[in-house]
Design brief:
Length: about 90
């Protein structure tokens, strides 16, 4: 399972985006079928996660917050994820 740090290093420049698809194929060839990440911030990150999912790499995101904020984060990022794991802030 690769984390977001690994994925973000794949494409640092606009020119490198052309090479992103072969890198995703390389992850799969090396038996990495899952990516763990936090919430994608930039459109470039979102695009990478969508491309990864198109090639069958599953994306899992980490969320932190109250039940409501976690639900909002899931809804806002549903196009970029296959599953979630989270830490819930206890209600007071």
């Amino acid at each position: 399972m690769a984390n977001h740090s690994v994925v973000s290093k794949i494409s640092k420049t606009s020119a490198a985006k052309i090479f992103f698809i072969p890198k995703i194929k390389a992850l799969k060839k090396n038996n990495i079928h899952y990516i763990v990440t936090g919430v994608p911030v930039t459109m470039k990150d979102k695009l990478k996660l969508k491309i990864a999912r198109l090639f069958g790499v599953q994306v899992y995101m980490y969320f932190f917050g109250t039940d409501e904020s976690i639900d909002n984060q899931i809804r806002a990022n549903r196009d970029y994820l296959d599953g979630v794991y989270y830490n819930r802030i206890p209600a007071r």
